[in-house]
Structures are given as C-alpha cells and as structure tokens.
Amino acid sequence: MIGLITKRAGMAAVTLFGVAVVVFGLLRVAPGDPIAMMIGPGATADDILRLRASYGLDQPLINQFWIWLGSLLQGDFGTSISRRIDVGQLLLERLPATIELALMALLVSMVLGGFIAIIGTLWRRHWASGAIDGVNGVLLAIPEFVWALALVLALGVAFPVLPLSGRINPSLTTDFRTGFSLLESLLIFRFDLAADLARHMTMPVLALALPLAGIIARVLREALSEAMMQDYVTLARVKGMSELRLILFEAMRNAIGPTLALTGVQFTFLIGGTVIVEKIFSYPGLGNMAIDAVVNRDFPLIQGLVLMFGVIFILINLLVDFAVVAFNPRLRHG
Amino acid sequence: MVDVTITAASHQNWKPIVAAAFSDPKVAVGGGFILLLIILALGADLIAPHDPLAQDLMLGSLPPVGMAGTEPGYWLGTDDLGRDVLSRFIHGTRIALTVAFVAATIAATVGTVVGLLAGYFGGWIDVVVSRLIEIWMAFPAVLLSILIVAILGSGMHSVIIAIAIIDWTRFARVVRAETMAQRQADYVTASTVLGFSRLGILAGEILPNVLWVVLGLFTLELGLAVVIEAILSFVGLSVSSDTPTWGGMIAQGRGIIYQAWWVFALPLAGLLATVLAFNQLGAGLRRSLDPVMQR
Amino acid sequence: MSALLSIENLSAVSRRDGKPILRDVSLQVESGTIHGLVGESGAGKSTISKIVLGIVSGGVVVTAGRVMLDGKDLVQIPERDKRILIGSQLALIPQDPLTALNPGRHIGDQLTDSLRMWKGFNRKAAWARALELLDHVAIRDPARVMDQFPHHLSGGMRQRVLIAAAFAIEPKLLIADEPTTALDATVQKQVLQLLKRLQAEHGTSVVFVTHDLGVVAQICDDVTLLFQGKVMEQGTAATIFNAPRHAYTRALLAASPRYDNPAAGLNPIDDAVIAACYAQIQQFDGVQHG
Ligand SMILES: Nc1ncnc2c1ncn2[C@@H]1O[C@H](COP(=O)(O)OP(=O)(O)OP(=O)(O)O)[C@@H](O)[C@H]1O
Ligand SMILES: [Mg+2]
C-alpha cells in the first residue's frame, strides 16, 4: 500500500512538471514581449535589456525554463500586470472564495446525486424510476455554462428571487479576517451575513452542482442496483431489513467506493467549471479573475492561475487515489 | 489452423446496424433537431426574415409576438439596436455548427490516431500518451480554451484549434482503452498468426471496431463544441462581434436582460436544445450499436 | 406434532414465457424436524425456498397456493408484516458462502444484525452473544474474526459464520439451500455435522435443499422429491429409502453413490423412467389447462 502511494505521488510529480512545461511553452509562444508588457511605456531600450537579463531572458530557452521553475518553487509568481500586485498574494486572496464555492457545489451534488440514486434504486421496479432517470439524463447532459444561464433567466429575471451577481450585498460591510466568508460568518454567529452569502452562492452552486449530481446519481444508481442483486443483500433481506436499510447499509458500502473515485475526478471538472460560472455571476474567485487576466493579457497572472488550477487538480486526483485505497477493505489490508 | 471466418466476423454487416440506429426514437428526435439546425445554417440567407446586421433604432427592443408593443414581421422581437433576434439566431447556427463539426472532426481524428497507436503498440508510446493525457486533464478546459484563443488571436480558426487541442484527449483516452481490449480479442490474434502486418491489423481489424465507439463520442463532442464556442463568444473571444453568434447574443442579452430578456432567452433555448439533441442522438446511437458490439 | 410450515398447492410460472416452474406443490414441515427437498437441477427447489423466504425474483410469478407459517399465509400478508415475520422467525443458510457475506462489512456487524433488530440486544450484548455463537460453530479466536472482513476467511469458515448468523435469533424455521455444495468434501462433512448438532440442540425445523441423497439419508426426517416442479414422491426418509413407490425415486436411488456402500457402481437413470416422468407432467399440465 505504501508502495502504491509513493508510485501515485511520483506520477503526480511528473504530471505537475509536465504542466509547468506546457505553461512555460504556452507563454513563450504568446505574442508580445513579456518584459515590454511588464515595464510599461516610457522605458528605454537599455532598461528593457537590463530587465531581460535580470529575468534570464537573454539566456537559451532551456536555461530560461530552469530559472523560471526555480523562482516558481520559491513562491515567486511575479507581479500582475493589470493589478500591479504580487501574483501569489492575489491568488491567495481569491482562492478561499473559489474553494467555498466548489466545496459547496460538491456537497450539493453529492447530496442531490445520492438522493436521486437512492430513490431510483428504491423505486427501481416502479414506473416513476423511468421518470427519475429522464430527469437525471437532463441534469447530466447540460453543462454548467448553460445551467448558469438558465438559472439567471429563471431565478434572476423571471422569478427574481436571487441576486444575479457578487458574493455578498455591498451594504453589508464587514471586515472578514479570512477569505472564507461563509464559514467565518457561521463561526462568529453572523447568520444574517451567512444567509446573504448563501443567497449569492445559490445560483453558481446549483449551476456547478447539477451536472455533477446527474453523474453521481447515474454511477451510484448503477452500482447500487448491481449490489442489490448480490447474495449478501438477499441474505440481509431474509434477516428482515427494510428496502431502504438494505440500500443504505448493505449495498451503499460497496457501491460508494467506485462512485467516490469518479466523483473525485469529476470534481476537478467542476473546479474547471468555476471559471465561466464565476464570470457569469461576477463571483469574486479565481475563475472570474482568470478570464479577466486572459482578456487583459496579464501573463504573469495567467501563469499563476493555470499553475494553481493544475496543482489543485493533481492534488485532488492524488487524494482520490488514497481515498479509494482507504475505502476498500481488500486494498487496505492487502 | 486458424479459422479465417473469425476475421470476417469482425467486419459485421453494417446495414442492419444502421437500420436499427435510425429506428431508435432517441436518434430520430435528436437527429431530427440537428437536421433542422443544419437546414437553418445552410439556408440562413433564405430563411431568416431580416438581415441579421440591419439596425433600426426606431425598432429597438421590440418584444416577441404575443406581448404588447410588437411590430409585425419581428416574430421573436429585436435587440436594443433594433436587429431581428430570430434572424440573428438563425445566422448564429452557422458559426455554431461549423465550429462544432470541424473542431470535433479534428479532435476525433487526432485522438483516435493517438489512442490507436498507444493502445496497440503499448510500450513507450503508451507511456508518453498516458502522461500527456494526464497533463492535459490538469488544465481547466474552459480556461485553457480561452487562453489558447487569446494567444492565437480571436476568430473562428482559433476557436476551432482551441477546441481540438483541448478535446482530443476525450477520444484518445477511450480509443486507447478500447484498442487494448480489442487487441486481446481473438480475431486480432488470428490475423497476427495469418501474418498481416501490424499497421494492417490496426487499420483493418481494430479501427472498424473502435469506430463505433468514436461515433458515439463524436456526437457528444459536437454538443460540447457548440457550448465551448458559445462560451468563447460570450467572453468576446470568438468571431468578430458583428457576426451573429449564440454566445455573443447571450452576452449582449445578459447586459439588457431586464429590458429585453428575449435577446438572452432565444439563443439560450437554442443552446439547451442543441446540447440535449446531440446528447439524445449519442445515447440513441450507443444504445442501438451496443448489442452489436456485445457489451 | 403439528406442521410449522405448510405449503399448500403452490404453483408458479415464469413471467417471461409462462412456463410452469412449480406444479401444485404441497409439503409439510413438522416442528423440530429436517425436511429434505430433493431434485435435480432446475427442479424448483430454490424457487420454493425463495417463495417461503419472500425473496423470489420478479421473473417468477406465484399463480396459486398458500404458504402457511404458524397459521399465517406468507403469500397474502402485507409486505411489512411479512418482512418482520420472516426476519424474526426464519433464517437462511445460503449455498455460496463466498458471495453471501457483505465484503464491505465486518463479520461482527453482520453477525449481530438480527440480534439487534429482533431480539432487543444492544450493541454490546449482541457482540458478546455473537462471540458465543462463533465459539459454538467451532471458530477459533472468535474475537479476532469478529473484527475481520469476509475476504480474510476461508470458504468453510464463512459457512460456519453464516450458520452461526442463522442460528443467532433461534429461528423457528431454517432453510438451508445446498449449504455444502460449494465446499470441499472434508469441510462438507464437518459443516453437515455442525448443522445437525445445532438443529438438535435448538430443536429447529429445517428445510434442507439438496440433490445429494446420501446427505438426505444422513440427516433428514422427511423427504419431498421434486421433478420439474412437481412432487414425485413424499414421505419419511425411511419409507423413501426402504420402500420407494415411484419409479423415479427408485432410479434416483440406484443412480446415486451408495451412502452405505460407496464401492458399488452407479446406474445411470433409465431414459424410459425420465420419459415416464415427463409424460406424467404433461398429463398434469393438460388437466390444468384442458
Ligand atoms: N428469475 C427467474 N425467472 C424465470 N425463471 C426462473 C427464474 N429463476 C428460476 N427459474 C426457473 O425455475 C426453474 C427452477 O429453478 P430453481 O432455481 O428453483 O431450481 P433448483 O431446483 O434450485 O436447481 P439447482 O439445483 O440448479 O439449484 C428453472 O427451470 C429455472 O429456469
Ligand atoms: Mg437451487
């Protein structure tokens, strides 16, 4: 088991290195001189040359790469061109909002997907399960971008019950100590703030959660139905367990492992989806900033953001690998 | 020693398969809607009631028929510049479908070839491809596509290239796994014994069987490509802003959503229906092809 | 002695093609006895067991008959009552110990389910009782086994665990569906002895499903012999073995390895006997439909 973990961690490191290479390559092929952009108008040719040398840009490409990688490893992501702030600091500022959004969406999708799967399994011999499958098919077919727009129209305009943009009502001026506003407001018992944050989050969370809920429901439902046909469930049925209990306590245990593994991988896609969803709802997270960075050609910021997402994705995949081992008694005890 | 009919059996008779596919209700509904879109795209100049670019500020923000204050001829209303929403929508199908078909074809071709090679030859090719796929998966697709278009400069070509660059892995992953499975299958072993060249087996034996799987993926990819194009034009990076696109209409409509929600609603409905249609088509195709593939 | 389980004129067909699976089956299981349900593969033995236990698949439709347990008809009573009745009074020892234990749950949890559900045991008491039960089925180091997962145990061990679980709630009726077929010969014998011992101790009634007449001779009091879902012969084990009336029984006895004299040769069942059996079934089906 230790061997498996080290192997996975090693592969993750290789992938991370590959991501760095791709990011480096992408930014080299990007048109425009990064130094010229960094330094702004009014700099002399000499200034530019000096800056070039200081960044190692006068060296061969391969050396440039190592210099670049070295500064990244020291936590130096450069300075944002459009915002004139340290990129690392900007990322840390925005990260909590995106984490709250993504985790909330994950939670909602697991609860909703699990609920659909359980109801579907419970009613699997009933005509209603066909209807549930149909609804589920729609959930998972529609991508988060389209869900977000549909929600804007439905809950923002047709029945204007939810705010269309932002994270919190600007009139509720509060100094949060951390970026985890929702968590913090709950911890300091400011439920008024929490409620407002939740209202702002509802639409982006739903847009992100609905497709994943559909995927979770489908995979879990299949795994549950498969497990419900196993001998051990039949035996438990003879013991007099109710159908719901059979699903929750006998079948779920064996169905949840594969589902969680898939959910982990899909969660990375959900995080990728925050990019456009945050943009649509002007939610102040990493994704929103990423689109602005691209539109403004703020390459240091783009580079930091892409690497940040890459690290998050790879970490999640690594965690999923470990979780799969931890959840499977066979693997755990080897 | 080796029964040659085994080889023949892998080229299944495709006529009943196609017949079965067309009689599937999902294929009929999904395919029917896509066909309608194709007709709209091809005949946009004839079908659209107005010039999609013609502005008339006197006729700005007209609501669709059935609401108060409509103007005859403007069935689904106008935007704030007085352009006919229906006509812009119809012309928007052009970009959507062109991008979808071209990008999906490139992604499918590249992904299939790479997947076949990795799955069949294994070894270092497979190691490299698997690693590449893993690295690709570490980028958020939307962000990467936006970045690529930003680097290449906006325009339809960039959008197509971006989608192909992002999504070839979808095909490569599945084709690689499928090829590995097929490689184990009897008929390939049989052909190897008969002395076919390795590339010959790849093209002649494995590809035809893998193609069914690719077809299902391709259908889904079409839907995804339509969405990515819409995202890119929503962000303002797709084609130039006066060419009507669904994403562009949505972005424009988002700004005037309280005055003229229909500018937003129609392309959104189109997007929704298109995604569902491609999805149904793909599901139907997979369902009707699956028993043939014995899976 | 009165019948604990009384199956009366039970008929069932396949949902798919309407083919009869059970043909007017009646049998009585007396209190404290072992009733052997014998027949070749496909005779309907498992189907009968499953109908009694309320776990028959949707592919099988019961068309007629009653299954009376202690005076209550298991086919008729509401689903919930049936579940409680079966859970608290019946138990099953399944055929395949490898698939009958949940791979994701600790042995201890699976053993204590029934005790906690139907005997009012709390977690701790159930755990202690389960340890006793494991000890009773001759499992060494029960405390360790309680904390293990099924994949840690051998097939024979798992079957012992399943037997312990079955006897945990002191069921009135135990159904053992070929409980030893999946085990190898030496283990088979031990498990059979164990089963017989526990049955005698607890005075449990058992329906013992098998196609092995040797096993029947060893442990059964009464026997029902099935062919294609039809009862061919029924009676005490002594009568069946010593004075079989039906030609099929005689042929079957001649065809089985002699439990008293394994060295004697086997006589394959005569085709004419099988043909006669099919004729009897056809005649029965004709009467039913004509
Ligand atoms: N779910 C089902 N749907 C349709 N037919 C079934 C189903 N289950 C069993 N049958 C049919 O019922 C008949 C009896 O099957 P059953 O399993 O009861 O036989 P058995 O006596 O237990 O045989 P074995 O010794 O092989 O276990 C068989 O002909 C079988 O095909
Ligand atoms: Mg059976």
UniProtKB/TrEMBL annotation, chain A:
Residues 95-324 form the ABC transmembrane type-1 domain. One of its GO terms (cellular component) is plasma membrane. GO terms for biological process: transmembrane transport. The keyword Flavoprotein does not apply. Keywords: Cell membrane, Membrane, Transmembrane, Transmembrane helix, Transport. The chain crosses the membrane at residues 101-123, 145-164, 201-220, 260-281, 301-327. InterPro entries: BPD_transp_1_N (IPR045621), MetI-like (IPR000515), MetI-like_sf (IPR035906). It is a multi-pass membrane protein. The keyword Metal-binding does not apply. It is found in: Cell membrane. PROSITE patterns: ABC_TM1. Pfam families: BPD_transp_1, BPD_transp_1_N. CDD domains: TM_PBP2 (cd06261). Belongs to the binding-protein-dependent transport system permease family. This is ABC transporter permease. It comes from Devosia psychrophila.
TrEMBL record, chain B:
Its main location: membrane. InterPro entries: BP-dependent_transpt_permease, MetI-like, MetI-like_sf, OppC_N. It is found in: Cell membrane. Residues 93-282 form the ABC transmembrane type-1 domain. Keywords: Cell membrane, Membrane, Peptide transport, Protein transport, Transmembrane, Transmembrane helix, Transport. GO terms for biological process: peptide transport; protein transport; transmembrane transport. It is a multi-pass membrane protein. Pfam families: BPD_transp_1 (PF00528), OppC_N (PF12911). GO terms for cellular component: plasma membrane. Belongs to the binding-protein-dependent transport system permease family. Signal peptide: none annotated. This is Peptide/nickel transport system permease protein. The chain crosses the membrane at residues 27-48, 95-121, 141-166, 210-235, 256-278.
UniProtKB/TrEMBL annotation, chain C:
Pfam families: ABC_tran (PF00005), oligo_HPY (PF08352). It is found in: Cell inner membrane. It comes from the Bacteria. GO terms for molecular function: ATP binding; ATP hydrolysis activity. It is a peripheral membrane protein. GO terms for biological process: peptide transport. Belongs to the ABC transporter superfamily. This is ABC transporter ATP-binding protein.
